[in-house]
Design goal:
Number of strands: 15
Helix content: 25-40%
Structural class: alpha/beta
CATH topology of the largest domain: Dihydrodipicolinate Reductase, domain 2
Radius of gyration: 20 Å
Largest sheet: 9 strands, mixed
CATH superfamily of the largest domain: Dihydrodipicolinate Reductase, domain 2
Strand order of the largest sheet: 14-13-12-11-7-10-9-8-15
Order of helices and strands: EHEHEHEHEHEHEHHHEEEEEEEHHE
Distance between the termini: 32 Å
Length: 397
């Protein structure tokens, strides 16, 4: 068993604290937060081991691993410090917000031999799981195009989330550039299509709401884009398009994917999923639909903003292989299209077996770097820019 420190006791941390508390490979779990009361509440809610005063105290302790659930632009530097302190690291998305931070994480993993994992939920999105299986067996023929959307209006829970995490200056951080949070859309595509982006051209849409969010004079990121679209070229030929929308008249499925091959097409949209080939059309909606395990009003979701509770209430879909999960997860809360159980287990197994998880540092870089370069492209009026690549990572030629 290994011991774990949770860094950041916000709305997202509770879902994973619960699962790691149940996991047979995880022992003591301690929590720290810049607001001590939040750490104390998380410990009490999930019967964890206790709190610690600071992140620095965790690094100086005998904890084996840390899980980062802090503000999204802080992940890169915190991950490097933890790796250098001899801790295995689980990080919420994104991996980092600059090219240099990503390179530093990869170097730290190489030099320390520690485990690093980015918890990208779209890797276990039912559509991604299904497309990954069909691509692996060649059912698409040659893949040449895909689409991934992360469509989440600010009014649908994000205002409250930013107020909760950002304090009195929350508007300065609510302007976070959409393309710096593109791992859900990019990861869902690349998590199925085993390739990587080599160039990108992107267009950003300046916001017009006028409420001080996405205002470059207020934004700590000098950002006024609330919506953005990026077109990526991939290695081996082909392309994929992603949308990151924060002002949109849509409150359905956040992440949606389409995959196009020479022999078949798969489309997972808001309320229907279809497989189409030269023989006809097949409705896959039920096969890819996660069965809710909790009511949005369940007390287990009290820490989550009401508009966001649906994302934390889902179970798994028939396409998911639950046979690999610990039995302790059988009736546990899940979330984000059934991904939480698999992500929590992936990290526990990786730390226990000392085997890099599927979402290791090199994969995380391939899901994160394209968005960083896409934002640069959008700031340059859509200029086509090369996307750096750090390679496949461990166990590859």
């Amino acid at each position: 068993m290994f011991s774990l420190g949770i860094v950041g006791a916000g709305q997202f941390a509770g879902s994973f604290a619960k699962l790691w508390h149940l996991h047979p490979d995880v022992g003591d779990i301690r929590v720290t937060d810049l607001i001590p009361e939040r750490a104390e509440r998380l410990v009490a809610d999930h019967q964890l081991t206790g709190t610690m005063a600071s992140f620095e105290d965790m690094l100086d302790s005998d904890l084996d691993a840390v899980a980062l659930f802090t503000q999204r632009w802080t992940h890169g530097p915190l991950a490097v410090r933890a790796l250098r302190a001899g801790k295995d690291v689980y990080s919420a998305v994104p991996m980092a917000v600059t090219e240099a931070e990503i390179a530093d994480i990869i170097t730290a993993v190489e030099e320390t031999g520690r485990i690093y994992m980015m918890g990208e939920t779209s890797y276990y999105h039912p559509a991604t799981v299904y497309a990954r299986e069909q691509i692996a067996c060649g059912a698409f023929g040659r893949m040449f195009y895909a689409e991934g959307d992360y469509v989440h209006d600010m009014d649908w829970g994000f205002y409250d989330a930013y107020r909760y995490s950002g304090g009195e200056n929350w508007k300065s951080t609510a302007s976070y550039p959409p393309l710096l949070y593109a791992t859900h859309s990019i990861g869902g595509v690349l998590g199925a299509w085993q390739t990587h982006a080599v160039s990108v051209s992107a267009i950003g849409v300046p916001d017009q709401r006028g409420d001080g969010v996405f205002d470059r004079e207020i934004s700590r990121f000098d950002n006024d884009f609330s919506n953005a679209t990026a077109l990526f070229e991939v290695a081996g030929g082909g392309s994929f398009r992603t949308n990151e929308f924060r002002r949109v008249g849509y409150i359905g499925k956040e992440s949606r994917f389409r995959f196009f091959g020479t022999e078949a097409v798969f489309e997972q949209l808001g309320s229907v999923s279809l497989w189409q080939d030269k023989k006809g059309e097949h409705d896959l909606t039920e096969h890819l639909h996660p069965t809710p395990t909790l009511s949005p009003d369940d007390p287990a979701l009290a820490h989550v903003a009401p508009e966001l509770r649906g994302a934390f209430a889902s179970g798994t879909a028939p396409v998911h292989d639950r046979s690999r999960l610990p039995r302790e997860f059988e009736h546990a809360p899940n979330g984000h299209e059934g991904s939480h159980h698999f992500l929590a287990d992936d990290f526990a197994v990786a730390v226990t077996t000392r085997t890099p998880p599927a979402l290791h540092a090199w994969t995380a870089a391939r899901y994160t770097l394209p968005g960083i370069i896409a934002h640069q492209s959008a700031r340059q009026g859509g200029a086509r820019l090369p996307v750096p690549d750090h390679g496949d990572g461990p166990g590859t030629a």
